[in-house]
Each structure stands twice: as C-alpha cells, then as structure tokens.
Amino acid sequence: MTTRAFILIETAVGKTKDVVAALTKVSGITSVDPVTGPYDVIAVIEGANLNAIGNVVTNNIHPIPGITRTVTCLAIELSK
Hints:
2 helices
C-alpha cells in the first residue's frame, strides 16, 4: 500500500512561483498547487512508507530556497 501525505508550505514573500517550480522537479511529489489562505502551496507526496515520505520532506523539500515552514499531514485509511 502506498503512503500519501499532504505537505502544507509557507513561502517567503514573492517566492511562491520559484518554490512551485522547484517542487515540480522533486521525485515522489504527485501534485503541487499554489493556494490562498494560511499556506501558500500544497504538495502531495506518495511513497512506500512513512520513512520514504520523511526522506523526501527532509532531504528534498526543506532545502528549497524560499520555503519558510512546512506541515506534513499523513493521509489515513479509515476502517469500515
């Protein structure tokens, strides 16, 4: 089963376009959308497990210039 997470991203003023461009090049990210509200960008990541998601966030997303803060929200599967 694939693990999926939503990454809520705050960017520095005037850097959203650059951050979106950089995020679209990161392996494992399935979608990137600039949004309005308390966050500037929402990215969706899919990986084999929680560790794979964590590695993408810490190694590939956090170093992107212009990102000031991230919040990772893991998608869960509700039992019926």
